[in-house]
From TrEMBL:
Name this polypeptide is given: SAM-dependent methyltransferase
Organism the protein comes from: Streptomyces scopuliridis RB72
GO MF term list: S-adenosylmethionine-dependent methyltransferase activity
SUPFAM superfamilies: S-adenosyl-L-methionine-dependent methyltransferases
Parts forming coiled coils: none
Biological-process GO terms, alphabetical: methylation
Annotated region (Disordered), positions in chain: 1-51
Keyword Transport in annotation: no
Domain called Methyltransferase type: residue spans: 101-197
Keyword tags: Methyltransferase, Transferase
Basic and acidic residues: bias regions: 1-14
The keyword Transferase is annotated on this UniProt entry: yes
InterPro entries named among the record's database cross-references: Methyltransf_11, SAM-dependent_MTases_sf
Amino acid sequence: MIQEHEPETVRETACEPVLDAGPADPGGETEAEPEATRRDSGATESSRANRGWWDRNADDYQIEHGTFLGDDRFVWCPEGLDEVEAGLLGPQESLRGLDILEIGAGAAQCSRWLAAQGARPVALDLSHRQLQHALRIGEGRSLSFPLVEADAGALPFRDGSFDLACSAYGAIPFVADPVAVFREVRRVLRPGGRWVFSVTHPVRWAFPDEPGPEGLSVAASYFDRTPYVEQDEEGRAVYVEHHRTVGDRVRDVVGAGFRLIDLVEPEWPAWNTQEWGGWSPLRGNLIPGTAIFVCVRD
């Protein structure tokens, strides 16, 4: 455990080890399918909706994608690019002894890989249920690290607590104010620390979220930043995703006080035959699916 990363607020929000928990939402009546729409959604509504969505869907997510992600791999994206190959955090041997924050950690597969390299990771996620899966996977393993349940927009750590921060599709696509998150990340990083995060490639926003040929025709404006919202019969958001153009992302990074040193667009590898939502070999060979931003706190 990394004691200096555990102020009282972290201890209070840490996930309890309910390793044999059943389904997140057992029993009850079948809910109506949410309505998909495009409308504004602020920070509070987005956070509440996405916390609930991940708590309800964490079990299915881990069943569907757990094999691909592995228990202790660092996979950046549906294309299958992993950190062993990419080295976006720096040379693998340089990770030993570093304090590393993973944001939107899910079941903490990436943090588990970091711990195996000798790093001291802290895995943070908004979803209690996802962190329960992290506990389940980590049970009986020799390597352990803190799991923290918290919002990425209000990181419960002291200034300058970490050498490096990373996020593999965690948090950033789901927040209404990414600059606020980036500023929080900068605050908890030490000078010279890297901030590396992957998100859905902005160009995909213009295409239907379909893996087949129907997903290859432009259906919306790339420049329309109106959030994608799924809402219930009362109009309450149950899932929210926010779009930023490539230029927006660059300005957000710079505006939060980072220097962008690389922007990686992983190509679809021949070995990967898996479809993951709208990601597929067909689309992946024609349009980019992921953008990875490599930033430094000066």
